[in-house]
Amino acid sequence: MEYSPPPLFKQGAPARVKVTVFALVSIVLLVVDARMHLLGTVRQVAATVLYPLQMAALMPRDAVYGMGDYFSSIASLQKEVVALKNQQVAQAQAMQQAQLQMAENAHLRRLLDAREHLPVQAIMGEILYDTRDPSTRRIVLDRGTRNGVQLGLPVIDNLGVVGQITRVFPFTSEVT
Questions:
Q1: What pLDDT, on a 0 to 100 scale, did the predictor assign at position 160?
Q2: Is 169 part of any domain?
């Protein structure tokens, strides 16, 4: 009969010896890698092998972030819906006022026997460049005679009058 402890409690080398051996192996690997760069491929292989495990470990974090994004986007969309409904109500009121004013204007024109004004025709254009003349401010537009631009037409933007067409070419025009 053998009176040795069961294999679960068997002890190999003492813990201090194991720590010393692993510390020496680590130092040797650090020096070898720093001097000769021999472990680069080993590091790449280890990273490639461990990548699926990294992704699996990051899945809970990504799921939490995704849920947070989902709920924050729901909240922001609900706020946007409320804002759009308020905007729709305001625009409906403005449209009613505009319709009332148009009807009132038509009534006043009939009373004054004035003629109806024609709707304004607009040509949308884009600024190609600014001329380099420092004494005058001139811009060149991407619309010309082929687009219906004529000499003397006013040019406006969202802030008001920019100028008028002073030169017209087939594909471009100049505004001063």
A1: 86
A2: yes
Q: Does residue 85 fall inside a structural domain?
A: no
In sequence order, what are the beta bridge partners of 139? 130, 175
Give Rg (Cα) of the chain. Answer: 40
Domain holding 138, by residue range, is 127-175
Query: Quick one: pLDDT at residue 7?
Result: 60
Q: CA-based angle 107:108:111, to the nearest 5?
A: 90
| Residue 107 covered by a domain | no
Contact 168, 145 (CB under 8 A): yes
**Which residues in the chain land under pLDDT 50?**
none
Residue 176, Cβ density class (10 Å: 0-12 exposed, 13-18 middle, ≥19 buried)? middle
* CA–CA separation, 26 and 38 (whole Å): 14
Whether 150 and 165 have beta carbons less than 8 Å apart is answered as yes
